[in-house]
Amino acid sequence: MDHARAAISNLFGGEPKSYMRFSIARQTDGDNSHVEMKLSADDEEGGEIGRQEHLHTSMGQPRRTGKNLCFLVIAAVLLLLIGFLIGYLSYRGRMQMTAKCLDGSGRCEMTPTASYLAEADETEEEMPGPSVLYWPEVKALFSKKLSARRLEDNLRRRTNRKSFEAGLSEDESMATYIHDQFNSLLLDKVWNDEHYIKLQVKGSINNKVSILEDDKEEELESPDAYVAYSKNDSVSGKPVYVNYGQKADFQKMQNSGVSLNGSIVILRAGKITLAEKVANAKEAGAVGVLMYLDPYDYKDTDELVPFGHAHLGTGDPFTPGFPSFNHTQFPPVESSGLPRIAVQTISSQAASRLFSKMDGDPCFLEWRGGIIGCKMMLSSASKKTVQLNVSNVMVDRKILNIFGAITGFEEPDRYVVIGAQRDSWGPGAAKAGVGTAILLELAQVISDMVKNDGYKPRRSIIFASWSAGEYGTVGATEWLEGYSATLHAKAFTYINLDTAVLGWKNIKISASPMLYTLLERTMKGVMDPATAQSADAGSLLSRVGSDWVKAVVPLGLGDAAFPFLAYSGIPVVSFGFYNKDEEYPFLGTTQDTVENLKKIANLYGLIRAAAEVAGHIALRLTHDHELFLDFGRYSEELLAFQEKFLDYDQEVKELGLTLDWLFFARGDFQRAVDGLRRDIVNSDRENGVIRRALNDRIMKVEYDFLSPYLSPKDVPLRHIFFGKGSHTLQSLLEHLQLLKTSKSSVNMNMLKEQLALATWTIKGAANALVGDIWNTDNEF
């Protein structure tokens, strides 16, 4: 140490080894003062106690100005470098990655101890620059401003008519009202999109269901309700009951030796969408479908007949894959999802009368539902048939989508979209009223936070009111089709508000895996019994339990968020409160009124809780430096499929093929995930260019799971997890299952193509996640 002190002393001009001298600011009397700072503790411990040191008595060695100046510069640079390294290593120490092994299988994922998706919401690090609202303040401010009274007023205003059918005057008046409301809130931008679409509506006379026997016709029912996109036809056939109309139900009938060719299939509502039921019936050979609300699932609905649509897809089925703007012209074309068989809904009373006319075997015990005397079919000797007359008509209509935007302060061209369906066949309180009320409340509260409380979202928020949702998410899908070239690079999440409150006992959630982490944290924060505004909402958390992901149900065609995910590759979340053991009975009927909806306990408290969940998700996604999207979740989803595929590894090898390349692609995706996590942790959050580049890599993940080898015109739902078609991982799994159950049914060329497309879609997603093309490695 003494040698070191001597070296430092000599370096700084030969000052005594115990002190270092430097100038301070000139004093007011003009005296040039100096301060001496002790560099050693030796004098304290072994020196002369009380010894006086005089400021100017120490004489330095003769100065060698050139060499000393050089040494001084080098020393200063070294000291600065050492200081920087100490600071950097200290920062890295706080951001160390820790290996977290999953379920003892030897698989490890790198999880940052701080920064990305950290748990420490309440300890946000203060950054230099202008004052900002930190996340705990944003949450508290938003929740404080929410108003159950305004939500109630908005709901009643939306449901004050008997019908809001898309493209008619009531729907257009509501669109104008929402447009005016957005303008009154002084949103940064308010606009609308006009779409010109074809809709199928009820004709001048009601459709009719009859029973024919010996040239006599007995009318069973002629309801006001209808099913859009049914085939216009008069068909007759033997009635056959097939439970909910799921594939397994039809398979059970076929296994029982029942032929469905030329039949009129009777189905009860629920489990899957009407369009899926009709597609399954068409595949089984039926010529018509009747659907009713079974009293077992839908209480107090004996006389109700629901509306619905039978298009197995989303958007305008007469411009599939293309936007329906007025300035575009297309040759006549139809979606492959149109049913091409006659479809009608009936009341459970009519279904009960129909069963009473059938003289065949009773229904399977597990299929009986709530109708006494349920029958499977007619006896072989019976001459009765059911006749279905459908006389719907096609119309051209203009619909309006209404938008309002709050512009982000750092990345205005990146946005979260919050949307709700506006139209309904009846009053639509639960179907469209609740979502519209929440949409208007969120726009008011967040805009107020920006204007009056200093909140500055980093990214933009778009509020969207869609029309023609009842016909299969037509308004939203046409918008997606119109901007398909850019939306996936701009919109990073869609939050669906439709049917947010259908009960009070349980939570139903459908979402992209990238949003699971944010959803879990948001749900716990909003529905914690200790802090929840609604006692009913607060009690839901304990029912869900710690394994929160079990509350997630697959995203289906009937969900308005579906096309955002499966068609455009945008992460989505759709959630709501419901009762697990019973359906909301009035959805899609003329009795979907506020009065009936109010039968749900603490309705407005639950609507407020739903608004709080949606608002917290949107605000969190626009507040943080990094996008709060858990891109690593897809690695777990891929692993789950890999474990299922492994069951067929030997059978695949016997065909001269291998699953190894598919598994290697999954491994490459996991490495890409780990690499992006490291890049985020080691980056400077205040460097806007770097942060934007990292966020862009996160945003690509969902989109890159859309198969790039398929035409969006021919196969619009290209997502390999959530899409529809042979390219999906689920379709590949079902094909592999045939290797054990029906090997002769395996199509070798199709199987090879499925394996190739899945492998390279996953590998492409991994390459995109890595970032720069020179960092990718396509060697398995």
TrEMBL record:
GO terms for biological process: intracellular iron ion homeostasis; receptor internalization; transferrin transport. It is a single-pass type II membrane protein. Stearoylated. Residues 236-296 form the PA domain. Keywords: Cell membrane, Disulfide bond, Endocytosis, Glycoprotein, Lipoprotein, Membrane, Palmitate, Receptor, Signal-anchor, Transmembrane, Transmembrane helix. Residues 401-597 form the Peptidase M28 domain. GO terms for cellular component: external side of plasma membrane; melanosome. One of its GO terms (molecular function) is transferrin receptor activity. It comes from the Eukaryota. It is found in: Cell membrane; Melanosome. The chain crosses the membrane at residues 69-91. Signal peptide: none annotated. The keyword Transmembrane applies. It holds the Pfam family PA. Cellular uptake of iron occurs via receptor-mediated endocytosis of ligand-occupied transferrin receptor into specialized endosomes. Endosomal acidification leads to iron release. The apotransferrin-receptor complex is then recycled to the cell surface with a return to neutral pH and the concomitant loss of affinity of apotransferrin for its receptor. Transferrin receptor is necessary for development of erythrocytes and the nervous system. Acts as a lipid sensor that regulates mitochondrial fusion by regulating activation of the JNK pathway. Homodimer; disulfide-linked. This is Transferrin receptor protein 1. The lineage of its organism: Eukaryota, Metazoa, Chordata, Craniata, Vertebrata.
